[in-house]
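Journal club prep — side note

Before the paper discussion, L.F. wants everyone to see what a predicted structure for a comparable chain looks like in token form. Sequence:
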Amino acid sequence: MPRIVIIGAGFGGLNAAKGLADADAEITVIDRRNFHLFQPLLYQVATGALSPGEIASPVRNVLHRQKNTRVLMADVTDIDPANKRLLFQDGGACQYDMLVIAAGSTHHYFGHPEWAQCAPGLKSIEDATEIRRRILTAFEHAEREDDPVARKAWMTFLIVGGGPTGVELAGALAEVANDTLRHDFRRINPRESQILLIEGSDRLLPPFDPKLSAGAAQALAAKGVMVHTHSTVTELDAEGAEVKFPDRTERIATKTIIWAAGVHAATLSSVIATRFAVTPDKAGRIPVEADLTVAGHPDVFVIGDMAVFLQDGKPVPGVAPVAIQQGSYVAGAIRQKLRNQMPKPFRYWDTGSLATIGRGSAVAQIGKLRFSGPVAWLAWLFIHLMYLVGFENRVIVLLEWAFNYFTHNRSARLITGVKEG
């Protein structure tokens, strides 16, 4: 039987595998991790609202009913198109007849990879728990600090990037400071924390309607978040960051910086560019044809954050609904190709965009509809529950949200990752 190999068990790869459940082919799903991660809720792990296991599901469990599918935990480091073979970091290999690459993306520091040590991004469970550790440790250090200047630095939080991730992090962090921790300390008042959100463009949430962007900024300001647009970080280290504002350049003393300013295709994209002789864009994404294949290689598909697909002259956004639809499309396209049929071009259907600012507050644009407030927040809750993989996870997350809503508590605010001795 034909061997279909899928690299990556994210939204795109997992939906491609599910779409091939009863295909007359051998399906192999390869991922460096043994679980599928629901990345849109990582910020809730980073702020202690949810635990990692509540937004992740073991890939083998998700696909255990598919008898034509096997799962391999491996790190693909090279591709041999001539022999249709994948090479693993540990020296292993895997043959394919058709290949789907959905390896996702990583952080983009715009030429400053060294900033990653001081300003972690939010793409993995390890990122989320590290950010959670830094946030909670900052309050612990502030409680012990006698010097008011040093205490202020510990209680100043800088978030770089005003897209959905940055906005959601800022809103959640404000709620941690204003509500969750308000009675937990004796020497400090967490409500006196400074939370700064830095965005380089003229408004938050650039893909959204300008009125929704303005509403999001107002909602964050009401929570005490200081929003700065037309501003960029020019330098940063463990003691703070230099920020270029429209009217000045200022050094901000802070011990906690979180990066949410951009993404870059996973490192495998450079391998694809070399092996298949294609030119990636500035974010490392691979250009694909109308059927999501690499030019000149009709047996190789690239989807999700790794691909740049033009629709009506514009690239489709790097969001979960795009990856989900592309994964489902590729499954159908592979079925057609196995029957020697030509698939129709891929067409993305925009299901809308949502971003939450906090309790009872969100912004949404779905088709021509533009709305915000509690209704948008309920829509955000419902849609995220719907996309979450696994019935058990949906139930647990719903119960956690209900508990957090009525108690203002965040039960997962554990400081982990601290070395003993």
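L.F.'s comment for the group: The first strand starts at residue 3 and ends at 7. Keep this in mind when we get to the figures.
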